[in-house]
Amino acid sequence: MSVGRLTADQATIEQQEIVDQPCDARTLVIAPAGTGKTFTLVQRLDRLSAQGLDADEVLVLSFSRAAVHELERRSSRSTDAGRFVSPRTFDAWALELLTQTYAGEWQLLGFDERVRTATEAILAGDAEEFLDGVRHVMLDEVQDLVGDRRRLVQALLEAVDTGFTVVGDPAQAVYDFQRRGEHDTGDVFSWLRDRYRNDLVELSLTRDFRAVSPRPAGLIAGGDALRAGAAVDPQQIASSMRRELLDVPSAGALQEIVTGFSYLDGDCAVLCRDNGQALEVSAVLHAAGVGHQLQRRSGDDLNPSWLLELFRGGSALSITHDEFLAAGGLDGDTAEANWKALRALGRGRDRIDLARLRALIAARGIGRLRLPAPAVAVTVSSLHRAKGLEFDRVFLLDSDPRDDEDPLEQARLTYMAMTRSREDLFRLTTLPGRGRVHRRKSGESGRWGLAMFGAGRRPWLGMAVEGHDVDHEFPAGVRGFSDDPGAVQQYLADVVRPGDEVRMTVLARDVDDCPAPLYGVEHQGRLIAIMSREFREAMGRHLGGRKAGDRQHWPATITDCHVEAVEAAAGSTAEGARAGLGEHGVWLAPRISGLSRFHYEKAEG
Questions:
Q1: Which spans in 102-147 are helix H?
Q2: Which of 237, 438, 476, 531 could form a disulfide with 488 if both were Cys (CB 3.0 to 4.6 A apart)?
Q3: What does the H/E/C string look like for 42-100?
Q4: Is the distance from CB of 588 to CB of 493 less than 8 angstroms?
Q5: Is the distance from CB of 518 to CB of 530 less than 8 angstroms?
Q6: Using 50, 70 and 90 to split pLDDT, how confident is the model at 406?
Q7: pTM confidence score
Q8: What's the Cα-to-Cα distance from 237 to each of 13, 170, 249, rounded to whole Å?
Q9: Residue ranges of E strands in 493-556
Q10: How far are the Cα atoms of 209, 261, 391 from residue 422, in angstroms, in the given order?
């Protein structure tokens, strides 16, 4: 625990000044990494309640699910009325606004389109009833609101015309890439200072409670320079932050120290420039037998396997608290915390609605319920996905800056990454090269892959396999390959484990109208799943749109992938019932990932 970390009833003078602002105050808070932002927001919620605001009169929005989860976790410990406020992401709130304002299947739209449509609804005055009653708006992580999301916030604040508490840190704005090509150069901080210049209260948090030992003076100075905005020279600050990174103690090469990860106390993270590099690090950890998790992107949720047990009771439409405890197989506080989250599906009743739970599993949206997740000792993440997270120990994988990278974004990413650690920060040397084989992202598929220099039109030697690439529509054994579905389910439950190696092999060609072959997933020689149509279409784009008849250019086998977890899956209820797996259409499926390697038939040379 950090030296000087606050207890539940302590606050610094600068935190207390933020907490005590009137409910109609328009407050902008600059909160650098580790300065007790979440603690301050929770205290602020309690104070707003004491000032007479009900929970439904305070709107709390944040950029990321991770930040929302942390806000909710901290506020739930409070004994005051602030614990009843429900934080949401901007995207989730936009969907709620559209659902309650217009008829339609808004969940079928992408995040960006929903945000744009919600903004239009506010500007048109159609959301007045939805916004009626909001007396205070609390916005977290606003430095990452760019483009459409920034315009949504501007429309919201102008529409409600009430007090607000806006919190962010310009030095940690790492999502500028989302507005490239939009010709959008605005930011929330400048807009607030201009729009509310006559009554904006601007405050700051300065004390670092995260770090056990003081951060390097150069890192702190770099953060201050990044917050200075237009006054900073981009190339100069990028060079300065690069020097700070090179001054971090080196732990050597990942391959030399990898076995030591299993013996570290506390939690640790290996932070990488991008997701492709994270997949390479994951492969090194798998080869050394080191258990770990890949930090998933928002919306790519894991469905815990124990959820399947809730559907074992035949055709029941809901289950009670006692039935949940008996079926879930969870212990003590973990069971109660999960019950509390799942009970939100009961539409006000003290039950879990299984139809709604099944729909969330099918949509891979279980993360919206914020189920408590088991602690993981080692996390591998890209820099962007590490936003808002903290770890006892952080290992930063070094890589040379790219020529096409914006220097300010480069500097902010470095600053953000170097402030994720509570105790120790180390630098790892660059991963060794592969000769002519290199890692790059495909413009056609949007996925990372392995390519060969000078290979002409067909350079690809592999493609990233992602968590949603296994087919969930049918239980294993009824499509693509024949097996007893019940026996496969038992095998998945009893034999398949996280970290196990798998490979994909061609099961059939010319299946439906998708040019890529149908691939099956093999575990120790046994088929346990088939790959989804989404995976096959991505492979077609990745390999340049191969035609179905051009068979010699499809890999015969795909290797270098591992099991992330065995998870609950939801698909065809009819197929599940015919397979003897119950009436709900819920079963087990492997979740796999990796920077895969393609293997072609020998006849191709």
A1: 111-123, 128-131
A2: 476
A3: HHHHHHHHHCCCCHHHEEEEECCHHHHHHHHHHHHCCCCHHHHCCCEEHHHHHHHHHHH
A4: yes
A5: yes
A6: confident
A7: 0.86
A8: 31, 14, 21
A9: 501-508, 518-523, 526-530
A10: 9, 17, 6
